[in-house]
Design brief:
Blueprint: E1 2-8, H1 18-34, E2 40-43, H2 51-63, E3 67-70, H3 83-92, H4 95-103, E4 110-111, H5 122-134, E5 138-139, H6 148-160, H7 164-193, E6 200-204, H8 207-222, H9 230-233, H10 253-260, H11 273-279
Parallel strand pairs: 1-2, 1-6, 2-3, 4-5
Helix pairs in contact: 1-8, 2-4, 6-7, 6-11, 7-8, 7-10
The structure holds zinc ion.
Length: about 280
């Protein structure tokens, strides 16, 4: 399986919290260094704390051998803006990243759709796919989708209010959810493909993972996974299967391949209600 992080440099509205962004950067990179994992990070150049923060962060990831891709400038939703506005945001989002990759003799290769939204109508979906191909982007698919972002939001609130017992409780529920959703997609893989593809996990560059990536990765190891790069994972022939979904949802590619083969989407495990409430700022 491959590990990927969206919303670099820091997910959420905290990019200018200095303590926070150092914790996220060091937490993620430190754990991956220890476990000798090369992940992929997808950047929103417009959501960092200024251009210097963005370029410093990209440098740190590249220095450790991670792949860096584009996640658009400002994380717009293709479902709510015209395609031309969306593609302009994609191009605006590659300026720093492309230059930094080229300085190192690397190529900007991967695009990750914000919200995993790839087009709600046939025209938009086709238009975006053609735009990405014309700009030499490969789509960074996701198979292990999950509700990590909801747990991360709740965890961020607990961090702000310095509620350590709540942080611990959220982290435990997070790890349990991730194992449940892994088992779900392992089963779906068998039903859709008759085997497991090289899986691609979606995570975000947030404090939750900075603090708890190690036990999360230990869970995957326990279930028998080795870690490969995104490039290696995408060589699995499963990724040549057409994406059979056109619509507003951000679906795992396992569901998309299932729809191509006439297999209906099955509801995924959700976060516990109390986590959703905590994420929204409730009790
Ligand atoms: Zn994102």
């Amino acid at each position: 399986m491959a590990i990927t992080f969206d919303d670099l440099p820091v997910a959420g509205a905290s990019a200018c919290d200095g303590e926070m962004r150092v914790a996220v950067l060091n937490g993620l990179l430190g754990t991956m260094r220890k476990r000798k994992i090369r992940a992929a990070g997808f950047v929103n150049e417009g959501l960092g704390c200024g251009a210097l923060h963005v370029s410093n962060s990209i440098n740190s990831w590249l220095n450790e051998g991670h792949i860096i891709g584009n996640h658009s400038f400002s994380h717009r939703d293709i479902n709510s803006i015209p395609l031309s506005e969306y593609t302009a945001d994609v191009l605006k989002g590659e300026v720093i990243t492309r230059a930094m990759l080229e300085q190192r003799g690397l190529r900007l290769r991967y695009y990750r759709h914000p919200f995993l939204h790839a087009g709600a109508t046939p025209e938009v979906k086709k238009g975006l796919a053609e735009f990405l191909a014309a700009n030499k982007y490969e789509v960074a698919a996701v198979t292990f989708d999950n509700q990590e972002w909801v747990f991360a939001r709740a965890y961020q609130r607990a961090y702000v209010s310095r509620n350590n017992s709540q942080k611990k409780r959220i982290a435990q529920a997070y790890l349990a959810h991730m194992e449940e959703v892994t088992a779900f997609f392992e089963k779906r893989s068998q039903e859709v493909l008759g085997r497991e593809p090289a899986q691609i996990l979606l995570l975000h560059a947030n404090l939750l993972n900075a603090d708890h990536l190690d036990p999360l990765l230990a869970m995957y190891r326990r279930r028998g996974y080795d870690f490969v790069t995104l490039t290696e994972a995408l060589r699995d022939p499963a990724y040549e299967i057409a994406d059979g979904y056109t619509g507003p949802k951000g679906l795992s590619w396992i569901h998309r391949w299932g729809l191509t083969k006439g297999i209906a989407v099955v509801e995924e495990p959700r976060e516990p209600e109390w986590v959703a409430k905590a994420a929204a700022g409730g009790e």
